[in-house]
Every structure is written in structure tokens, then in C-alpha cells.
Amino acid sequence: MRSVGQGKLASISAVAGLAVFGAFGEEPWSAAAGVAAAALVLIAIADRIFASLGWPVWRRAASAVVIATVLAGGQWMGVAVMPWAPIAAIHGALAFVFGASLLPRRTPLIVRMIRVMGKGPEAEGAFLGFVRRQCLAWTALAAVIAAMAVAAAVSEQARAIAERAVPVALASEAILFFASHWLAQRRYERPEGWLDTARAMARPELLMQSGR
Questions:
Q1: At the N or C end, where does the chain have fewer CB atoms within 10 A?
Q2: Distance between terminal CA atoms of the chain?
């Protein structure tokens, strides 16, 4: 197991501390701490993706400033940034990469993951159809969650609905993730496990190649 560097450990500790203060601190500082934690997480995710695309440091730094400015501005304007902004950003990105990989002459994202894992044969025939349906399901579910999060951030009425619906949708994602692996292993005798897929999904260069 690789050890966590001091810089990463400090970053994780900072995010955790801000998140805890945001949850249990007093207003208005708790809201600011929550937004700061969300900004750090989104900046870290975006920076890793942009680095895999070969963006220079100045452009990645500019993107970090934009993310922080948008979140801070939204909080100042009365938008419910936490927890809806991170949910919307992450699931919007998921919907995009899964959906883009289903366009003509492009390789479904799960097929790319299977190739990277290298544990079983190429996805063909009935299993390829199963994989494409999985990508479509992830696209639709992630898009719905992202849309609900955006609506919840700007509308109190939508927020009341989203506070009940989004947890159910997130639980549905977990069920889809584990059930799809169970079906693939049982019906199609695939060797890939859910942990293999989780490791593949952690590679942003793989996600960004979904359009190729």
C-alpha cells in the first residue's frame, strides 16, 4: 500500500476540518467553511483532470480561481452552495463522460475500463449490449441527480423535494454499481470485480478519453 504524502495528508485534514466546522459551527462562518471545503474538493478533482489533459500550470490555476469565485459568488447571492454544488458538478461530469462515450464511432466508457483492467476478454456480443445499457443507465441517473442538485441550489421549493429524492437517487447509484457487477459475473462470467472498476474510474485520463 502506498503511503500518503505529507502534502496530501495536510490537504485531506484541511478539507475534513472545514467540512466538520461547516456542519457544526456557527453562522456565518460555518457556511463559509462548507463552501471552502467544497471548493477545495472540486479544485482537486478538476486539477487532476486538467493535468491529465496536459493543461499548463497557469491554466489550471486560473480554473481553480474560477471555481472558487463561482462558489463564493453563489453563496453571497444566496444560492445554497452546500451540498448541492459538488453533487451537481460531479454528477454532471459523470453524465457527460458516460453519455459522450455512447456517441457514434466512440467506445463506451465501461469498455475502456475493461480494457484498462485487462482481466478478461474484449466486450462482445450480448455482453457489449449489456455494457451499453449500463452506460446509458449511468448517463440518465447522473443527469437526473445533477439537475435536481442545480434546482435545489436555486429554489427552496425544489430543495425540499431534492432533500428527499437525492439520497434515494444516490442509493440507487450504489445499487446499480454492485448489481451490474453481480449480473456481469453471474450471467456473462466476467472476471472484473467492483474494486477493479473503482480503481479504473479513479483514472481521469481514462474518463477524458471517452470521446475517442
A1: N
A2: 32
Instruction: Please tell me whether residues 35 and 65 are part of one structural domain.
Output: yes
pLDDT single digits (tens) 89-128? 888 888 888 898 899 888 898 888 888 888 888 888 899 9
What are the pLDDT digits (tens) for 132-143?
Answer: 999 999 999 999
Same domain, 98 and 197: yes
Tell me, yes or no, whether 68 and 118 share the same domain: no
State the sign of the Cα–Cα–Cα–Cα dihedral 142, 40, 211, 183.
negative
Domain that holds residue 154: 83-212
User: Rounded CA gap, 124 and 24, in Å?
Assistant: 51
